[in-house]
Write a structure and sequence with these properties.
This protein has five helices and no strands. The chain has helices at residues 2-13, 20-24, 37-51, 59-64, 68-76. Helix 1 crosses helix 3. The radius of gyration is 11 Å and the shape is globular. It comes from Nonomuraea mangrovi.
């Protein structure tokens, strides 16, 4: 359920350039599929608002944004 919601947030953050089904089925980093740095910042804002967490802006934290499975696991563990 978290992963599906994250995919919807990716679609919103990318203004539809990357659809939720594309994000869910991604086998490469989301940035390779077109999630731009602006989209990442919008996604961070959406995740922080929706899940009440603070996204770590270090390289390691930003890498989570490229992989929905890792991101969903990380959020579920909080």
């Amino acid at each position: 359920m978290i992963k599906e919601r994250l995919a919807e947030l990716v679609e919103e953050a990318s203004d539809g350039a990357l659809t939720a089904p594309e994000a869910l089925s991604a086998t490469v980093p989301l940035s390779a599929l077109g999630l731009t740095s602006v989209g990442q910042m919008r996604l961070i804002d959406a995740i922080e608002t929706e899940f009440g967490v603070e996204v770590d802006l270090t390289e390691q934290g930003l890498e989570l944004l490229d992989d929905l499975d890792r991101l969903a696991t990380h959020l579920a563990a909080r």
